[in-house]
Amino acid sequence: MPHQYPAEFRRRVLALLDAGAKVADVAADLDVSANTIYNWRKQHLIDTGHRPGKSSTELAELKAARREIDRLRAENEILRRANDLMKESTPPKRGSR
Fold first, then answer.
1. Nearest-angstrom CA–CA distance, 20 and 4
2. Is 90 exceeded by the pLDDT of residue 46?
3. pLDDT value at 84 more than 70
4. Distances (CA, A) of 2 to 5, 12, 28, 65, 96
5. In terms of Cα–Cα distance, which of 64, 46, 66 is closest to 56?
6. pLDDT mean over 69-92
């Protein structure tokens, strides 16, 4: 599972880059992957409107929506199976004449 860094830590790393520090130096000093720092910088540029893409807020909403869809699909499948079991165990009704 990927390591989750606190938002404040990410902000400080980005501040170091804004102050002129090199990604490789910051990565080595803080024991963080350079690719991770590049991703943070890219997402920061998107969030601030300097680059096109989905903002962090939009990505979080999308992730939550996908999680809800998965939950609803699983719930729907459970209900389908329960319905099938009820059909199998319930004798057919006799006509009332």
1. 25
2. yes
3. yes
4. 9, 20, 18, 21, 64
5. 46
6. 92
- The vertex-13 CA angle with 10 and 17, nearest 5°, equals 135
Name the fold adopted by 1-53. Answer: Arc Repressor Mutant, subunit A (1.10.10)
pLDDT band for position 94 (50/70/90)?
A: confident
- Does residue 41 carry a pLDDT above 80? yes
How many Cα atoms are found within 13 Å in the side-chain-facing hemisphere of 58?
A: 7
Q: Write a three-state SS string for the chain.
A: CCCCCCHHHHHHHHHHHHCCCCHHHHHHHHCCCHHHHHHHHHHHHHHCCCCCCCCHHHHHHHHHHHHHHHHHHHHHHHHHHHHHHHHHHCCCCCCCC
